[in-house]
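Quick one, T. Sequence first:
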Amino acid sequence: MEKIFSVQDRQNAFEFVLSAARENDRIIALVQVGSGAAGYRDDRSDLDFVIALDSDESMPEVMEYMHQKISGMFEILFFTQSEPRHLQNYILSNLLEIDIGYGGYENAAAWKPAFKVLYDRSGTVEEKMIRSREWMDDHIYGDKQKKDVAVACEAVWVRLMHAAVAIHRGNLFRAIGELEYVRKLYIDLLGDRYRLESGLNREIDRLPEKEKKAIKSTFVTGENQADLWTSLLNLTKLVYQELEGHSIPVTQEMLFEYYKDLRD
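Structure tokens:
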């Protein structure tokens, strides 16, 4: 394997993708998204692009064109292509990751606030993306929040009860598994509220310090029952606070009575 990519390697790859896109008349615009659009986060930041096509019918042809160009220029360690998501993922032999999404330029929309139009033959893509931000967050996070709340209301109390029984029985790994499941639901709810991507905790580091401190209070830091009970109690309070105003079959008070009965 080559050495791990440098900042110059990343810049060279960036310039190659830009040049390859410009050479294809079916590619109307190339947009950089992710951290690179606003200034790379650090030396290990990858490259993320969106290619705006003259029409959706051109997609298979252009995706194959970009694959041939990139694989002809660089040694590819890993490649995958998702047709439903119109997405290609490349990992070069120096571990630089390049992600490219595809879509018709008429439907250009910014799914994230950070984007930079590198070139645009139509002169309309940037305006479309700016306008799309007016409703995109509510469209994405509003629908997701409804789903996450519904799942949480249906599942958290059961999982918390299972965690309590596991702690009572001394089943350490079962208890941790149940707590992790509920913590994930809780973090999803926080992500929805703060308009942050919670999948794999991608943007959760951007939460206010008080929220991050609350999440940390639910971590299991010891293997004894007392530590597990503390994590369970903290997580119960937090998730029920986040779900305040929503209907949950088992109330927080009922759970605390359940916990007390198991601990006595």
